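tool_call predict_complex ligand=iron/sulfur cluster
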Amino acid sequence: MYAVPTSLSPSRVESFTSCPLAFRFSSIEKLPEPASIHTAKGTFVHRVLELLFEAPAPERTPSLALTLVAQAWSEITASDEYLMLGPSTEEAEALLADATRLVEKYFTIEDPTTITPEGLELRLEADMGSLRLRGIIDRLERTASGELVVTDYKTGRAPSASYEQRRLGGVHFYAWLCEQALGERPVEIRLMYLASGETITAYPSEQSIRFLPKRTGAVFQAIEKACLTGDFRPQPSGLCGSCAFRRWCPEFGGDPSLAAAEAPVVYAVPERRSAAEQA
Ligand code: SF4
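tool_result ok
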């Protein structure tokens, strides 16, 4: 039996439907997961763009962005995420060069001096029954005509048309969160794919967000039931290849009961890992 979570992000709720056991490890037991070059790059680029929009509009130039790349790099290389990654010199150089390219590419997509941000890395919360839903919005802005627009930065390329529809399904949740938390529904949600320089735009409507509370409520009921019974079944899929918990998954010969004790050691940042191993 596990304590029922009282707050989750919409994507965490959805992750239960992909694999209940992986959900238990990450969202109920809150076990650490390994860092990856991909997530480190995402953190890095998001930080540069956040710093860029903290500057007065006329100063948001490519040369300021390159200065901010240096500032964000010194932050990220001191972070636990980077220390856990422990990249080689070549990997670190490639990460820095790749992230810098994405920041340069950003300037080909839009002119940041024309943007009026209302919030950066904005945390929004809203209650759905007994569950508090939380989300972070990369950038919320107000257009010249007074409407709200949400922008979500992606460090990868734009997805195929079929996958795009699934992605857009998720972004409508952010429209719902805005409406609940701010009392106003954004007119657009933009997914900005920095690698390919493309932007995909969703237009939330009453209809597109109406079904969300019902669906999320149904998934949350299944989560509550699993917490009460302790029955979080593994659900093998293509995601197993990148699953951080595969070594504790019975589908791969692992023992789930060992994960809580072993994962914090296996996925500790290097200094903490050696201290834990000596203990
Ligand atoms: S390896 Fe696959 S089935 Fe096992 S926990 Fe991870 S995602 Fe689920």
